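Section 5.1 Outputs to date
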Amino acid sequence: MGKLIIDPASTPSLNTYKLLIGSVVPRPIAFVATVSAHGVFNLAPFSFFNVICAEPPTVCFSTGFRLPEKDTLANVKATGEFTVSIVSEGIAEQMNLTSGEYPHGVSEFDISGLTPAASDLVKPPYVGESLVTMECKLVQTVEVSTRPRGGTLIIGEVVRFHVDEAVMENYRIDPDRLRAIGRMGGNEYTRTRDRFEMKRPVV
């Protein structure tokens, strides 16, 4: 069978969205906590998430465009702070509960029953049940597109890590103990238990 040639410019954005989330897999999940100007905690998962660099440690995630702005984006812009918690299998169901479109002012910590643990250097809490979390200060936001399926990139510097002693040895995270999950297309997720190793070639 041959390859299909697809022009995004003439393809409905829903279809290009399906192509992206079905092919860019698995995607890590940022469980992002923020706090509003009125002190309400917000918690939401984002699978458009990755690391930018290690010096300084910097991560990024993106939120979909909508008006009014999603609570996460509005809170980050207002406070300049957020936390990222890594999602393990043990909190997958609670994470999924937080992905609903709840009314403004409702805390997803209350919806999910997860614990808002106090951060050291930022106001937003982190997920107490998460095995690895990061406190972040906003570096910048980049509004990439305001189209219906556009989005804003949020870049943050990690100013503090919280790592469960059970999953780390000599700064190496043990994936068998972390048991992180990843996002696939549709409603599917994946585990990180099935892996293989390859050594880089010596040139």
